[in-house]
TrEMBL record:
Annotated source species: Gallaecimonas pentaromativorans
Keywords: Chemotaxis, Cytoplasm, Hydrolase, Phosphoprotein
Cited Gene3D superfamilies: 3.40.50.2300, Methylesterase CheB, C-terminal domain
Domain of life: Bacteria
Subcellular localization: Cytoplasm
Known EC number: 3.1.1.61, 3.5.1.44
Protein name from the UniProt record: Protein-glutamate methylesterase/protein-glutamine glutaminase
Molecular function GO terms recorded: phosphorelay response regulator activity; protein-glutamate methylesterase activity; protein-glutamine glutaminase activity
Main location: cytoplasm
Biological processes, Gene Ontology terms: chemotaxis
Gene Ontology CC: cytoplasm
Domain notes: Contains a C-terminal catalytic domain, and an N-terminal region which modulates catalytic activity.
Length: 339
């Protein structure tokens, strides 16, 4: 049984979140707290397995509380954030501080939307309960040696839970001269823009959300927008990245499988695919197609993954030829490209 403490200054929100979670037989809400000080006492007394945490609260904001919590008593935390620009930026900061995942605050709408939200919240809490809590480490130095971009036509990256930090750690070790990079991260629309801007501010690579058909070039990183699929096609001998609206694949849009499978069908080309931390199995089938087509396919290992779901599925399917932690994957990529 997963024991959850719900922290939110809104009594209505606490009641709604608690009610949603309690409907799952594997989850029990052991308590509620209206502010970080109540939460601190409740954690000591109730010893929850997972915390759901609001960001904007009286007396102490959620970020300050999270920072103290991760320093004194690290535990799985799922942030509950508002869908605003400020909320998106602050949520990414919370993930940097050690939060496992986030969900937006539920909004009034159709019953079907609330049902989908409830499933999402319960899934996130369950994943957090079994997540691998990792100590934050400073980023390694960026490579300075020459890169031969002709060795790879493209690098494809897929990730989900824990992926915003995983993708950042990998990209920050690569120079501006990398082959074109395409990223599918399971993320909601409003947060994907903030995620993209954050990556662009940290790396010498040019990082942007893909908005239209684009012939990909070295030094560019294209991120799939939240709620839109990304695929790779070949037109007039050039690789072109596209975004499109279609039904979710495996409940995901964007889906890693869509990108990987399209790249496998794009004709003979030199590809590297990396499948990083995330729950579920999205990307496994597409990675197998890439491997069968001659691409290099690697996955993040269990010890370094926040949730070893997607990488594990690919590994057990035989879709990946190697696994390693994030620094190892980043370094091996550079070795592959060494001039």
């Amino acid at each position: 049984m997963i024991r959850v403490l719900v922290v939110d200054d809104s009594q209505l929100m606490r009641a709604l979140i608690s009610d949603i979670l309690e409907k799952d037989p594997d989850i029990t809400v052991v308590g509620e707290a209206a502010d970080p000080f109540e939460a601190r006492d409740a954690i000591k007394a109730l010893k929850p397995d997972v915390l759901t945490l609001d960001i904007e609260m009286p007396k102490m904001n959620g970020l300050a509380f999270l920072k103290n919590l991760m320093r004194l008593r690290p535990m799985p935390v799922v942030m509950v954030s508002t869908l605003t620009q400020h909320g998106a930026d602050v949520t990414l900061e919370a993930l940097e501080l050690g939060a496992i995942d986030y969900v937006p605050k539920p909004s009034a709408g159709a019953t079907s939307a609330l049902v989908a939200y409830s499933e999402l919240l319960r899934d996130k809490v369950k994943a957090a309960a079994s997540a691998n809590l990792q100590q934050q480490r400073s980023l390694p130095n960026r490579a300075t040696f020459g890169i031969n971009t002709r060795k790879l036509d493209a690098i494809l990256i897929g990730a989900s839970t824990g992926g915003t930090e995983a993708v950042k750690r990998v990209l920050c070790q690569w120079p501006a001269t990398m082959p074109p990079i395409l990223i599918v991260q399971h993320i909601r629309p409003f947060f994907s823009s903030a995620f993209t801007r954050h990556l662009d501010s940290l790396t010498p690579l040019d990082v942007a959300e893909l908005e239209r058909d684009t012939a990909i070039k070295a030094g560019e990183v294209w991120v799939a927008p939240g709620d839109r699929h990304m695929r790779l096609v070949r037109k007039n001998g050039k690789l072109v990245a596209q975004v499109f609206d279609d039904e979710p694949v495996g409940r995901h849009r964007p889906a890693v499988d869509v990108l990987f499978a399209s790249a496998a069908s794009a004709g003979p080309s030199k590809m590297l695919a990396l499948l990083l931390t995330g729950m579920g199995r999205d990307g496994a089938d597409g990675m197998l197609a890439l491997k069968n087509g001659g691409a290099t396919t690697w996955v993040q290992d269990e010890a370094s993954s926040v949730v070893w779901g997607m990488p594990r599925a690919a590994w057990e399917l035989g879709a990946a030829s190697a696994q390693g932690d994030l620094d190892t994957l980043a370094a091996r990529t550079l070795e592959l490209l060494k001039a």
